Amino acid sequence: MRGRARLIRKASDAVRDSAPVLHWMRREFRCSDNPGLLFARELAASGKAPLGVVICLPETKELPGLRQLRFLLDGLPPLETRLRELGIPLFLRIGPPADELGKLLRETGAGTLTTDFDPLRPAQNHVQRLCSLTDAAIWEVDSRNIVPCWLASDKKEYMARTIRPKIHRRLPEFLLEPPRLLPAPKPWPGPVPHTDWARALTHAATAYPAPPVNWILPADRNTLPGEDEAQRRLRDFCTHRLHGYALNRNDPVKDASSRLSPWLHFGFLSSLRAALAVIDHPADWPDARDDKDALLEELIVRRELSDNFCLYEPGYDSLDACANWARATLDKHRDDRRAFLYDRDALEQGRTHQPLWNAAQRQLVDTGFLHGYMRMYWAKKILEWSASPEEALATVIALNDRWSLDGMDSNGYAGAAWSVCGVHDRGWAERPVYGTIRYMNSNGARRKFDATEYVRCHAGPEQAEQFAVRR
Ligand code: FAD
What we know:
This protein is an alpha/beta fold. It is 49% helix and 7% strand. Strand 5 (112-116), helix 5 and strand 6 form a beta-alpha-beta unit. Helix 17 runs antiparallel to helix 18. It starts with a strand and ends with a helix. Bound molecules: flavin-adenine dinucleotide.
């Protein structure tokens, strides 16, 4: 696993090899197929040291929404049980991560901390601050990308076409069956913590006094978290929806995509496991190769391009991310008259003149998920109907992060930047407001799929009727 790890801070001379190793889970919440945890176990084995895991819930202002937090927290008790069976205690901390981690390292005498690579700003800031608070060695392990992000490329890639060959070249080194996690090499020396999940849930709830009812998602198959559910969904996708994926994945009514993103986002599932399952799935239909290639392109190339974008573009959530051509065209058209102008509240409540857009917003709020094609359409219209591109980008990010179960993800920041800032795209025909940023409209949606049926499903028959008659 060393090939996926990089040393962020060397241990001070005083640190003993046999001091406990702690693995800080902050992006990849799973026991199996977890390179960070496997690497921590390797370090513990080489120093004949005990191994523990820590999860830290940050302060209120950094928490995702309540629906996302519930999804995460409900998936953790089975993880704790699995770790305990391997002699690995789980410490749950609540508070500013660097301070909490610094304290825990001192209390336990741990000499090494391993943690998940995460290019997003809050995560990078926590690690930087922690470096100044501890004597322990700190390692970052890329457990999200199949090819570790910093090895795939050392610069911000222009588009999928430029990163694809770099990733494909290194896949033979990294697209390999990971080993099983073995028990901790040595028992934990001090008292083993008893996690107070009720307190964690209370913390989550008090962070959001009087949340609107729809912040909590109804309990159904699509809101069951955890590793077991992730594996079940992966099997279900391979058995029932991999066949036809290439042809149908862009049809929001057929809903033929994998719908794995919330489980991938929280790391209940590794993309490596998903890729291996797809590759190994016995497929006897004529276009099986196309279906598998299409899924692997999204799961590996597109997904890993997003982490590349967030790692090498400090302004990943602002107009600073624009290429020169995109910035120039947005500036040229910033004073264009908008045929419709909506503020964030009107958009959030799905109160626009357009039933197709309202249906997308409803799907997002009611289910915590928005189909990939509709995410693009939804964000493009926010650009068209906002007072400025800055306001549009901020609204896309705010609504996506608040309502999507998979929000606050590098995929989301890259998707928002693609839609509003032309990132990973090229210039198209010039038109008002958009300039040469790619345009999308409801006629395009009608040509691609049964858009009226989509409106009926998510916004009801009245809106569907309006949509059907208005062209
Ligand atoms: P599938 O088509 O089954 O693809 C499998 C996996 O590949 C996905 O789960 C995802 O991890 C990855 N993937 C697919 N499409 C993309 C893509 N375009 N870019 C990067 N990775 C991709 N994705 C998120 O995970 N979280 C977000 O918050 C998010 N917000 C988005 C916002 C906008 C405005 C846009 C345009 C895209 C956003 N995406 C986001 C990317 C993409 O739309 C979703 O990953 C995808 O729709 C998830 O559905 P699925 O799991 O059925 O995907």
